[in-house]
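Good morning C.,

I know you're traveling, so I'll keep this short. The sequence:
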Amino acid sequence: YSQLLSDIDKEVTKHNEMQANELSNYLDIVPKEHKNYIVPFPEDYEKYVLEKEMKCPICGQMSKQFIVRSSLLKLERLTTDMRSIYSPINPTWFELATCPNCLFTNSASQFEKVPDKYIGLTREALNKVSSVKYAVNIEEKNIDTVFTKHYLAITCTISPYLKDFKLGKLWLSLAWLYQDMQEYTLYEWAYEKAKLHYYKIFESSSVELSSSEEQKLYMIVAAFMCHDKRYRDAQKLYFDVTRIPQGNHMIEEMARDELEKV
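The tokens, ready to paste straight into the viewer:
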């Protein structure tokens, strides 16, 4: 993997150099090409979510947040970049919780769990994007709110603990949302951002992963490489997925299928 890691390191460095001021615009957090999509929540979404009162760890305000009732959803398929396609709703629309007062955003399952030492830094980050509060209604029930929540969650990802995992997942989720809206330029842009963070994880030797987590990481990185037409590198990773002991059988079979295709 020495040449592969060297290539990845060069790509990470290149992306880091392009980061500065990229998101500067009227909302401070979204790219200027971003539009208003005004796609409402499904009419029956309330059947598949619960509302729970949560306390914001940044400002202390209580608010109602969604919790997805995963047991009521059906997994239709899993894509090669590890996107789970569910029916009858897309749980991604409901997985992030946002405080309507200070705009702190995190996954609903981790919303109240912010270490004390990062509260001040998070508050500072939110103060820099306070214009969002006056530009959008974070409680509207449509996909525009979902997009805004993703960008706010990226802004609020301060703690170094698993930072690249969190940011990689958020950017990849954003890419999929843009893909759903047929915004392919922004899809490619967000996909590149996600790739940066997953490559960093792949490079790291300090991150401990379970067998299934390692499989998913290799599958995602292999998908990025196929996207960039680096089929030989992807082939190596798909092969490695099939060799990871005690992994997920479905992912292993997907890797075997992709191995034959590339």
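Safe travels,
E.
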